[in-house]
Amino acid sequence: MSPTKPGSEIRRLIEQLADTIHIDDLAERLGIPVRQVGGRSYAQCIFHNDTNPSMALYPGTSRDKAHYHCFVCDAHGDIFELVKQSKGLDFVEAVRWLASSYGLASPALASGVSARKSQITIGRAVVEPTPADSGVLERVLGVYRQKDTKALEEWLKARSLSKEVAAAAELGFAAPATLVNYVENGRSDFGAFRELLGQLQSAGLIRSERKKLGLVAAETYLNLGGQYRDFFNDGRVIFPIRDASGRMLGFAGRRLNESPAPKYLYSPNLPKSQVLYRANFALDKIKADLADGAKPVVYVCEGLVDALRLESIGLSAVAVLGARMSDAQARILIDFAGTLPDMAPLQVRFFLDQDGAGLKGAAASIQTVLKLDKDVRLELGFVWPLDSQSAHSQSLPIKDPDDLLRMFDESEPAIAYLDRSTHPVAVAFLAERLRVPPVDILEDNRWETIPLGAKYRLAVLLESLAGGLIDRVLTTGTAHSDSYGKWHQDVWRFIQNPVPTRVGLPIQSAEEIALQLNIARELAQAGANKGEVLSDIAAWRRVSLAATAFNEGLITRLQQVQFQPIEPFDAVFVSRGFGKDEERLKAMPCLEDLIVQQYLMNELLTERLDDGSESKFSNHIPAVRYYRSIDHVRTTGESGGTEHSETLSFAYQVDMDALEGRSPPSEGGMFRPYFECWRGFISSLLKQGRAMSHVHMVRLDLKRYYDRITRIVAKDILGSSIESAYKSLGDSREAFVPLLRPKALQAERQHAAIDFILDQSFGFYYYHPNTGHPIASDREKGIPQGPVLSAWLGNIILFKLDAVMRAKLQELNLDQVVRAGYARYVDDVVILAENQGILDVLRAAAEDVTRTLQLELISKENFAPMSAVEFSQHLTAGRALPAYGPREEALLLESGDGDAGWGMWQTEGPRRQTSLELLRDSRLYAMNRPGFGGGSNS
């Protein structure tokens, strides 16, 4: 096969440019200083920081073309390469620039550039083409398919794949230097030779290498064997990648044997996330099968060989070229399904690797399809074989579909096995969220060991994920009894009767009332132990031991009209930071007030009153809710009765398992541990920043935030959310905070809840840390720093900022391109943008919102623009947000019999870090004990 095609006007132009352009003149046109040294032209090298011109410029001769060589960094190339590197162009653009600059423009070149810049349409997604057009890639495939067929045949035999399958998939083989040698063989026709080399370089299939050259070699034009290498240069099986229409987009190369090298390499510029491997074949086969009366079914897998294995047994299959299906890939199948008859929906079965990563990828892919398939064109299934179903269950563990299906000698039993192993996609979602293997969902005895609260929460999430069409995730196109076990019954029951106590009072007995108050006390104590104000552990112990009598007092107090704290707060001064003279006041209510505050927050934040609808009670109450048992976070009440699965606020995430009494509280009280929240904050910033080409970043802070929160703003935010939540209860409004003024009119109870929070937070008295005298705080401005109630209130007041920034991100981050980012940790606001203009827009929007909240947003840190890599290194090294993360707060351990109060949990032992912090706690060494300077033994 000859690499040259005579009669090309563009090739003649390339040769003309190479023969007529003086490289000295070209360098000067490009703004590169040139000087003469010993009869030789030298230029300042553009490839390294060159202070003494070290790049020799060699003019063209009868035997060679003009070129350059740097004797410091070993850069070597010709006039086309010099323009490419100076101007940041590809080969065709460099030819075009040279032709235009030297008055040699060609209509053929213009049309070639126009054709090259045409777009490739894949499904609904518009993709920029690879620099080499499909014609060049087809030509390269021809080279790969005629080389080293023996190596390919041996690999096929080892994988038990037939030559027919390989021929249908157009497999080839790339030995080292396959393309370099091919191009070198066409050197006699310079125009064709240089054009092909440029095209393959632009496609990334051939790459230049800098090597130390002797003087003679440096004076030689282009030595392909010494200065270039193939991208696939270590002996790989080549898989051509085509779009759904059959257009060639690039290649994947699979290594032959086990080695440290990557298993798969993909040609540069291949739009992996926007193409499905073998979609062109699979979709045509589905149409043919449908014409023959068969159901349209396609399997989605990870590996290229997995897809070919499924093809070998007569099934349609595509591979996602990654760990999960992208939006663009999902649209390919959705759009194709739209071309099928309504009575023949496309069955999509997710058959990824049988490991944790494969399960995670399957669950993510399923969610992507459910999100995009608004017209319900697809029927979904999840393939996960169980050991008990396999005749080969005593074999070594099987990971990928290829290995699994190779054990079948015939197609029919393999297909029947896959049908038996296809489950509702809910299985993938449940298993991934619970972090258990799917067998724990499918087998009744294992399902029964999963906590009830986790099952209920996941059932609610499933319904939301399915957009209310729960049948989509609980059924498959192949009904078989194995998939419809106890898990299926329980999910249906939770969805059909989401909250059995929805009608009537949720607390109907003295025992249930005591349970709610005891939960509030345990959470309040855990929250009080974490702060700078010393917690009276002995008082908490006495209250726990007398819980029954104490609870009666709480019930009586909640019936009263007076909502102010019953005594002044304890207070201490703490430093605002190194070098700052003014101290920060931390204040903490007495334990009686803390418990009542906690009870009210528990009743507002509870999900016992949810009815399963989108307007459910909890969606109206602002909070970032963390579900420990399933490691899930959702934000509610950000704007109206909405919920979001992607959070923008990371501090003070409410631990719903602790709040609802399903798990003991952590050291954060009702909040998720602080380090976990901070890690989530940093991870969010990393994810957003890494998706940008360049990162512009600013860190903002709300000046004296807690001291400047106003009563009128807090009342407005609490009023709108609590009022709407109260109305959502309909005829069950008597269930709203049932112990708070139970004899008042129903229309007054929600106002009482609002007034209680405001009176507990504004205008409080505190004991001055220095004098001990009671001091009154401002009734209209400033909330105490210390109580859990203040932490929750301080966080949700800024939900209005989050809502505006979320809308801005949705407006700017179109077409899956991240141009803007945002994350907040209480009053610590970080904004990211790909350019300064977007950063200014986002900052202005944030400042506008905070002004409406009567707050001042000020700059805390500005950063120079960074690349995504620099940003990642900057952030993970702690330089971008240094030392502002929360320190784990140590508890003083209480003694006792471990059975204070209602004792439904087993107490966990202290963690090592807590113990180390405890050893440094000054409170241990300031107690009034004999032998420690606080008393006498005499």
Word description of this protein:
It is a single chain. The protein is an alpha+beta fold. Among the domains are: 138 residues, Zinc finger, CHC2-typedomain (DNA Primase, Chain A), CATH 3.90.580; 213 residues, 3-Layer(aba) Sandwich (Dna Topoisomerase Vi A Subunit, Chain: A, domain 2), CATH 3.40.1360; 107 residues, Alpha-Beta Plaits (2-Layer Sandwich). It contains 38 helices and 31 strands. It has a five-stranded antiparallel β-sheet with strand order 1-2-3-4-5. It has a five-stranded mixed β-sheet with strand order 15-14-16-17-18. Helix 16 packs across helix 19. The protein is globular. It starts with 8 loop residues before the first helix and ends in a 19-residue tail after the last helix. The C terminus is likely disordered.
CATH topology of the domain at 276-488: Dna Topoisomerase Vi A Subunit, Chain: A, domain 2
Distinct helical segment count? 38
Q: What is the helix fraction of residues, given as a range?
A: 40-55%
CATH C-level name of the domain at 276-488: Alpha Beta
Q: Using DSSP, what is the number of strands? A: 31
Structural class: alpha+beta
Strand order of the largest sheet: 1-2-3-4-5
Low-confidence stretches: 112-131, 388-396, 499-507, 883-909, 911-938
Shape: globular
Main sheet: strands, sense, barrel: 5 strands, antiparallel
Strand content: 5-15%
For the termini, the CA-CA separation is 107 Å
Q: Mean of residue pLDDT?
A: 84
Taking Cα atoms only, what radius of gyration do you get, to the nearest Å? 35 Å
> What is the CATH architecture term of the domain at 276-488?
3-Layer(aba) Sandwich
